[in-house]
Design brief:
mainly alpha; 434 Repressor (Amino-terminal Domain)
Amino acid sequence: MPRHSEEHTGARIARARKIRRLTQRELAELSNVSYSTLTKVEQDKMPASPSVVGALARALSTTVADLNGQPYLDELRQDQLDILINPIREALNVYDLGVDDSVTSRSLDELEAQAEKLCALVRATDIKRVASELPALLLDATNAAHVSDSSRGWQLLASVYRTAYDVTTKLGYPDLCTVALDRMGWAAERASDPVLGGMRQYLRALAYFRASDYTTGKRLVGLGMATLEQGEAGRVRDVVTGQLHLGAAVLAGRDKNADLASSHLAEAGRIAAGTGPAEKVHWLSFGPTNVGAHTVSVLAELDQYPEAVTHAESMVIPDGWPPSRLAHHHAEVARAQMWTGRTEDAFKSLVKARELAPQQTRYHPTVRETYAGLDSAKRQIPNSFQHFGSWLGM
């Protein structure tokens, strides 16, 4: 299916630029993006990298999500996922209404079991099922937290808000992602849980990373580290601390600070050597394998694409590594392969991501950026490439 010109990121950048009454040269100067890069991106002759989109979004006073076209509404409607968003929004809005006498909440044991089940489904990338079950769980957990007014109840609610963050992020709703994180912080404070508080700052840092606000993201990492120091020493705190270092490494990579990124990766590696695989500690997928995957991401963010591909090829992925994390890794590898001219390999990596996590892959901006780049390359690649584009809606 041929793509329409108004659907690609470059066309949205050009439209936003014209609304601001800027010439291409003026926007290039404002954003510190080269004129040559900007013109090629607007003409869809070159993919827009995350750092380029971020710089242009800041210069245009708009959001990265707007320039990327998120949320991908047509595809969400095709998958009947759009109708699941408003119930989540409504359930997030009743957080401070207190006890609802009309609701008979399940026990904390039952609610915790379902919360764990939804976390596992997120890692298995069954996003539609999680989105459909999440509103009822949010309402029940909210009421149960107010009824019990205990650390356990508020911890449960904070965990469910974290799942709301996961779902809304994967479906491309940054506004709801922010609301979910605010609610998570609110519940974590009532639970007096520094680890949950620190993890929330990590997730906030990732949200700012996606919005290309690296300065705020780095500040949030520092705040998260300070919050974690108040928690009980042990493996759980170490895992969340290690994950914060990984997030900080990618932020530094996107900000082109190779030394700082390397320092954070080294510290995360040291911590992972002590914790070992810890995929189920707050469902963060932390461990030596995740450090390796983040190393690939950092190298790609530093535009060291050949090194990113080489590192990815040296990794040994253990059986049972979470499909959501592995699919994301394949998407990152595909981007690096594309920029090194290995178009067939890049497409194979995209297909692997789809096989592992079709719902996640369909709404992943990196997948769409990479597909657009492969399409622009006009290289000889399998006929199934066009079918993949039709599935993405591009």
